[in-house]
Each structure stands twice: as C-alpha cells, then as structure tokens.
Design brief:
alpha+beta; five-stranded parallel sheet; 2 domains; binds flavin-adenine dinucleotide; FAD/NAD(P)-binding domain
C-alpha cells in the first residue's frame, strides 16, 4: 500500500489529506504536526469567523490578489476554484454566506465549523501531533525519508512561518521570507489626531510604482485599513529592504490631478463667496487638516484662491506625503511573502522538479495574497492539486 506523509496539519495539509482519503482510501496517509492541535491557525482566521474564500468579483486581475505566485495559483484555481470551495464546504455540512465585500464565511460565523468539517473529512489519516519534522531527505531506494522514516510521497505544507533547515538535504531554492499584510507607523501627530477617520483613497510609496486603493483608516499609530494592507503586500519585499522606512503618498480623493482640478474649479465657480473651509469635499476634520497643509487661511473664499492656492490644494489632495517610520501588525494577523521558490516546482502538479514524489502546497511556497480569503483559497487549491497529482501518479 503506497504511503503518503503530509508535513503540517494546517489548511493546505488537512485539505490535501481529506482529498486523498476521499479519492484513494487505500493510501496510508500520515500527517506530521509540530503543534499540539491540528488546524490551530485556521481556528483563529478571520477573527474566529474564518474568511474561507472570496468571490474574486472585486479584483480586476489575479495579480491584484496574489502579488506573488499568481501563475501557479491560476492553474490551481482551474483545478479547484473558489466556487468549488463553497460547494465542497457546503457539501460537507458547512453552509456559507457571501458578504457585500466579496468575502465568504461559514454561515455560523464560526471558524471551528471549518476545523471540525476538515477533521471529519480526513478521518482515516493518521495525525501525529507534537511531532516536528526535522529532516526530509531522498533515500537510495527512491523513497523519501521523513525523520528517517520512508514514504512513497511527501507533501510539505508547513505554512508561512516555516523554518527551512528540515529541507536542507534537498538543496531547494528558497526565497527569503518577509512579512506581508501589516499596518504603517506614521510619526505625524497631526495625522494621528485624525484617528478613526476612514476614506476611500489611494496610497503609494514615493519613488516607487507601488500603489493601492480602497478604504484607508487613520489610527493612533498611523495608517491601516484595506488600502494600507494591500500596499504592504504589494511592497512587502521593497519595504523589508528599506527597513520599513520611506515616504507614504496619499491621494485623498483617489482621482487624477486633472479630475481634482475640474472638481475644485467647478466648486469655486458654484460657490465663489463661500469659505473654502466650510465647503467640505472630504470629512470636515480631514478637510481642515489638508487646508492647513496647503497653507490656506481658514477664512479664504473660493474666489480668492487664485491659481497658486488652487495648485497647492490640488497637490495636497492628490499627493499628501508622510514619513513612514516602521510597520505594525494587523490585528496579530500577517502572512509571509517568500518560501520555497516556485522555480523548484512543476506548476501543473506542484511536484518538486528535482525530487519526484515530493510536493508542496500552501504558504510554504512563495505564494501569498492580500486579505479577503485569498490566502486560504490558495491553501485549499494547492492542497487539492497535490492530492490529485499523487492520485494520478499511482
Ligand atoms: C491570525 C490570522 C488570521 C488569518 N485569517 C485569514 C482569513 O480569514 N482568510 C484567509 O484567507 N487567510 C487568513 N490568514 C492566512 C491563512 O491562515 C494562511 O495563509 C493559511 O493558514 C496557510 O495555510 P497553510 O496550510 O499553508 O499553513 P498553516 O495553516 O499555517 O499550517 C502549517 C502547519 O504546519 C505546521 N508545521 C510547521 N512546521 C512544521 C514541521 N517542521 N513539522 C511539522 N509540522 C510543522 C504548523 O504547526 C502548522 O500547523 C490568517 C492568518 C493569521 C495568522
């Protein structure tokens, strides 16, 4: 009876085990887990509610959701899509709901339903808890040795926080891991005084082409919200290289300079005698802050603005800059960019090119996504592909 070792009882590992149990119950599946519980991270995803996937309707291209690994994810999604995810969990007794922000959750809003469902679906697999794998090496017999024990197939699903020494014997290319999905520390008291403010804006890093749009939240330490998290993901490696220092540029109206000029000229011609400070084009606290930054007197009227005042206001609204002094965590939640280089992997099967019988799935690969359920979807899809690839090679 062929044997499979899965290393890591997380989202990808357990989904792979469940698929193997369903499709090839004759296989002996052993799951090695370093921790005391399987699926410990899945239990706390989405603030305990588990944002298990996304409808993908809010993104224009896959690379917008997956800054790294888009090509491999595209193939994995062809094999097991977001619709398949919903069908699979619903079919296994976990009805799901779609939120207006395109995120899918279990209807119960309880991540433990996802955990229980996966554990039930993988029944028959032997889970060895508190058993960290310290080595995976090729054996002379053609098998792979996991902690010196031979297996016919090995699937590595050790997640984003993986430590790679256990793979040293395999001589694989590793892209150094760096954090993704974090918030920005901005040491500007005037900005921080706007704490709690949320606006639809776009945010970028000066001197780079990294840019993201969406709700931007001002916090007591700097900037957070979907736009900031997206930018942290897109620029994860660049920011790691700069030590999380730089200049953040905010376009508060998420419009081009030309569009903002038209908007301001229209407002001026409709309200020539009105005070600029009382014609709020943005929430009033933010509007006053920005007029101050544009060096406009609080008692200035639209008719008095002049071309210099207008240009200063346009520049402040579209390219307001703040120093970035560091990163902070997003509600204790982040993923890792980097991992096992995709050049080691056959993108169709997720089998290692150098070591037949060795597969990789989930965040251990150099694949990661923005928030919204895309990371778990990558784990389900890649876990599925590994299981199916093993089954077709039997
Ligand atoms: C707090 C938090 C909330 C999140 N919320 C969401 C969300 O709502 N939606 C979403 O899409 N994504 C979310 N994510 C990201 C998502 O959880 C991960 O991308 C996903 O779990 C990755 O799955 P994985 O199977 O690759 O790794 P993991 O789920 O991390 O599993 C890896 C497993 O491998 C084990 N392991 C590691 N090394 C070894 C070893 N040497 N030997 C044996 N076992 C080992 C670990 O103990 C772990 O159990 C969240 C992340 C965090 C931290």
């Amino acid at each position: 009876m062929p044997s499979v070792a899965i290393i890591g009882a997380g989202a990808a590992g357990c989904f792979c085990a469940a698929q193997l149990r369903k499709r090839a119950p004759e296989l002996a599946v052993t799951v090695f887990e370093a921790g005391a519980k399987p699926l410990a991270k899945v239990a706390i995803t989405g603030g305990g509610r588990c944002n298990l996937t996304n409808s993908f309707e809010g993104i224009r291209s896959l690379s917008e959701a997956y800054p790294r690994g888009e090509r491999v994810v595209k193939r994995a999604l062809q094999a097991f899509s977001q619709e398949d995810t919903i069908r699979w969990f619903t079919g296994h007794g976990v009805p799901c709901v779609l939120q207006p922000d395109h995120c899918w959750f279990p209807r119960s809003q309880d991540a433990m339903d996802i955990v229980r469902c996966l554990l039930s679906a993988m029944q028959g697999a032997h889970i060895r808890l508190r058993t960290p794998v310290t080595s995976v090496t090729p054996a002379d017999t053609g098998n792979l040795l996991v902690n010196e024990e031979p297996f016919d197939y090995v699937v590595v699903t050790t997640g984003g926080a993986s430590h790679f020494p256990f793979l040293e014997g395999l001589q694989l290319g590793i892209v150094p891991p760096v954090p993704s999905l974090f918030t920005f520390t901005i040491p500007d008291p005037a900005l921080r005084s706007l704490m709690g403010l949320v606006v639809e804006a776009s945010i970028g890093l000066a001197g780079t082409s990294f840019k993201a749009s969406g709700p931007l939240l001002v916090t007591d330490w700097g900037l957070s919200g979907p736009a900031t998290l997206k930018l942290s993901s897109y620029a994860a490696r660049h920011l790691a290289d700069t030590g999380y220092k730089g200049t953040v540029c905010i376009n508060w109206l998420d419009k081009s300079q030309t569009q903002v000029r038209e908007l301001l000229q229209e407002t001026a011609s409709e309200n020539p005698q009105k005070l600029v400070s009382t014609t709020h084009l943005l929430p009033s606290r933010l509007w006053s802050h920005l007029l101050g930054k544009a060096a406009l007197r609080p008692d200035i009227r639209w008719a008095e603005l002049g071309s210099k005042g207008l240009n200063r206001l346009i520049a402040t609204l579209t390219s307001d800059s703040y120093p970035l002094s560091g990163k902070s965590k997003f509600r204790e939640e982040f993923v890792t960019a980097g991992g096992v280089a995709l050049s080691n992997i056959n993108p169709n099967t997720l089998e290692c090119k150098q070591h037949p019988g060795l597969y990789f799935a989930g965040e251990v690969l150099d694949i990661d996504a923005i928030t919204g359920g895309f990371n778990l979807q990558a784990a389900w899809s890649t876990g599925y592909v590994c299981a199916e690839s093993i089954i077709s090679s039997l």
